[in-house]
């Protein structure tokens, strides 16, 4: 594995419990600043896993989109989304529509897909009045902190994501796949090792088995890379979980996760993973105009509950395939 570039941005503040912070002066042109510092900014992310850039003045969609494009020549079109987003075109999206009083627990974006972003780009146009931080956690540190018995089972079996698409909870078929044409959805599922079945009521049920541990394609670091805890039923607030079970049944939940062999996850395992994440979370309140760049493989991210309006735009950049990250299991259709 090659080493990350050594030239990083000067002046990055490293403080325990907070993401690396850089104070920047864009002189009113954040996209120009990003283009001029692109290589150094990427090197900083390679060295630290993430960086929060403050002072750019990202106050509108156009400035954010131009800055994202300056940092990456390839912004992804999202597929297999688990929650709706608004698209601003050219790979620029709103944050996932998720109840603001509920946390989005630590996860790696699209870690259940065969093709996912290597970089996540966030632009805060409007910070909430309280809460709403995008926390980050180092995936290697999380892996090292988990009990070896737990890690070994997931390394051996992988993890299984089950989804039941409907028009009420989470992303619909059309939102997730870009079409509701059954033949097009079937072709995508077959090409991406996803088992699928159309239910009598017209809903779609899918299963996909993925690796829980990968190696970073640049550094070779072993990373806990998945959404095992975030998309599991035991992470959902109890009253919401009970409602979903009553409404859809245990096999019809909008999403759930299992061991790779199909065995259900015990509540204590899910809570353990979330506790380790919490212990390793670094956070800083958003300020209007902030930019955050996150290495999506090395670093998990979250969204904390918040009050007041919150407008954070997202781009998924530098797509890479799971097969390029030395997965611990061979991915086949379950």
From TrEMBL:
Signal peptide coordinates: none
Listed InterPro entries: AlphaKG_dependent_hydroxylases, TauD-like_sf, TauD/TfdA-like
A UniProt-annotated Pfam family: TauD
Domain TauD/TfdA-like: 28-315
Cofactor: Fe(2+)
Disordered: region residues: 1-20
Entry keywords, A to Z: Antibiotic biosynthesis, Dioxygenase, Iron, Oxidoreductase
Keyword Signal listed: no
Keyword Iron in annotation: yes
MF terms in GO: dioxygenase activity
Alphabetized PANTHER family for the sequence: GAMMA-BUTYROBETAINE HYDROXYLASE-RELATED, TAUD_TFDA-LIKE DOMAIN-CONTAINING PROTEIN
Protein name (Swiss-Prot/TrEMBL): TauD/TfdA family dioxygenase
């Amino acid at each position: 594995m090659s080493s990350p570039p050594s030239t990083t941005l000067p002046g990055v503040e490293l403080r325990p419990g907070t993401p690396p912070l850089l104070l920047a002066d864009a002189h009113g042109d954040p996209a120009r600043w990003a283009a001029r510092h692109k290589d150094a900014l990427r090197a900083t992310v390679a060295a630290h896993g993430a960086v929060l850039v403050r002072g750019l003045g990202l106050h509108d969609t156009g400035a954010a989109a131009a800055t994202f494009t300056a940092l990456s020549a390839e912004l992804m079109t999202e597929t297999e989304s688990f929650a709706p987003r608004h698209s601003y075109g050219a790979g620029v999206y709103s944050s996932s529509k998720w109840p603001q009083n509920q946390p989005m627990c630590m996860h790696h974006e699209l870690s259940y897909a065969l093709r996912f972003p290597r970089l996540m780009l966030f632009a805060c146009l409007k910070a909430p009045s309280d809460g709403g931080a995008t926390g980050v956690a180092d995936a290697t540190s999380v892996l090292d902190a988990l009990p070896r018995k737990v890690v070994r089972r997931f390394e051996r079996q992988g993890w299984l994501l089950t989804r039941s698409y409907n028009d009420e909870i989470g992303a619909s078929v059309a939102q997730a796949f870009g079409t509701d044409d059954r033949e097009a959805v079937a072709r995508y599922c077959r090409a991406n090792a996803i088992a699928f079945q159309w239910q009598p009521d017209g809903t779609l049920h899918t299963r996909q088995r993925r690796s829980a541990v990968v190696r970073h394609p640049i550094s070779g670091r072993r990373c806990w890379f998945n959404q095992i805890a975030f998309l599991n039923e035991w992470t959902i607030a109890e009253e919401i979980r009970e409602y979903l079970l009553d409404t859809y049944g245990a096999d019809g939940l909008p999403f759930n996760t299992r061991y790779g062999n199909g065995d259900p996850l015990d509540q204590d395992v899910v809570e353990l993973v979330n506790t380790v994440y919490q212990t390793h979370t670094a956070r800083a309140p958003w300020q209007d105009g902030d930019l955050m760049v996150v290495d999506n493989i090395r670093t998990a991210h979250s969204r904390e509950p918040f009050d007041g309006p919150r407008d954070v735009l997202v781009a998924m950049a530098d797509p890479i395939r799971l097969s390029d990250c030395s997965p611990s299991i061979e991915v086949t259709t379950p």
